[in-house]
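Ticket #4471: structure output looks truncated?

Reporter: J.K.
Steps to reproduce: submitted the chain below (486 residues) through the standard prediction queue, then opened the result file.
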Amino acid sequence: MSSYFTDLAQQYIDGEWRPGTGSWDIIDFNPYDNEKLASVTIATADEVDAAYRAAERAQKQWAATNPYARRAVFEKALRLVEEREAEIGDAIVAELGGTRLKAAFELHLAKEFLREAVHLALRPEGRIIPSPVDGKENRVYRVPVGVVGVISPFNFPFLLSLKSVAPALALGNGVVLKPHQNTPIVGGTLVAKLFEDAGLPGGLLNVVVTDIAEIGDAFVEHPVPKVISFTGSDAVGRHVATVCAAHFKRSVLELGGNSALVVLDDADVDYAVDAAVFSRYVHQGQVCMAANRVLVDRAVADEFTEKFVAKVAGLRTGDPSDPATVIGPVINSSQADAIAGVVEQALAEGATALVRGSVRDNLVEPSVLTGLPADSALLRQEVFGPVAFLATFDGEEEAVRLVNDTPYGLSGAVHTGDVERGVNFARRIDAGMFHVNDGTVHDEPIVPFGGEKHSGVGRLNGDAMLDAFTTQKWISVQHGRSGFPF
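Returned output as attached by the reporter:
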């Protein structure tokens, strides 16, 4: 077992590794075999305060540091990820049940985002804006917000922690990171260790492993952070946004989805099948962009369904450390029970199981369900597991209506033999991201990432990071003399 789980099972506050002082421990389990990986005594609200105060103290000097010097930290962090890729991959497999393929996918993206953070340090630019007042010069500076609080999820914890932490630091901020309780190492203290070894000054990045049962809203409502970057469910995101608004903070919310992959009548069916299977079942379907719904034009529905069902039935479920495994465990027994409950509910509502997977501990085999009533709530909610809802439609108008018939608007995809037909279709969908002749699961470091409706507020990646983690400051200079009326 990786030494990460013994060495990093602590809090990281003000450049020091120390145990939490809470009254109970978070136990970190391997979701495949339930092996205990680590035990972390939780942080209290006092330690959350200490973390934020440390970031606040360290941030001023960091913001004043030459951005070329800041950039060197991220160059070193990238080299360290490359050097430690095998160990980090093992940790991803062990802590969150990611398959070898998934671990490689997450690490590839993590390196891409670190490469972008290297450049992001040099991105902020000021402006000089004309004034209607004679002799006046208007300067607009792009400055760090100060301190950013980051709350990351369990499904891609290394990537999605780095995705906010690295840009926030590169742009001159301090950061406090709270990882998900199921992934405290990969999503939290491993990130801290990486930046510590890369030479980031102590105090700038702090990691608190804790639970709302212990700290309540202390992480979000603390007076120091000016921005909270949250990735997770829309239910929790709504609460985070409410608390932020009450305390005059900015929130960046990357929330759930209910994506659809649409197969039009002129699609390459074999290719669409491959895209749909990946889009639904990658990382056991525990992906916000996953294709919950697969919508197929009736003209090609029989052919698509036969091939889709055959491919899904052949997916191997089992030990995520085995390179041949496609479906590993879901994160915990609560998730496994919830997914089993979705299948039972769908069947009770009249759906037919074309593939019905069994559930063994946290291993949930894939299912394919069809014939769900059009008014079923299941078609409008996020299902975070390996269950696909297959439905047919007649023509594009009905397809557009079905895709938009959900409170979510994160991602999606359409398959067609005519690219411009696909683009026109995508433009009619109420989603932040939509892909033509591809899967629904994509993230790139310089393309704006985010959703509409219940899928979030704000964007990340590229220039959107400037909007998320900096603010603008107007300083005017009067070179002559203003006239005052009294």
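Triage note (M.O.): checked the attachment and the full token line is present. DSSP finds 16 helices and 24 strands in the chain.
Status: closed, working as intended.
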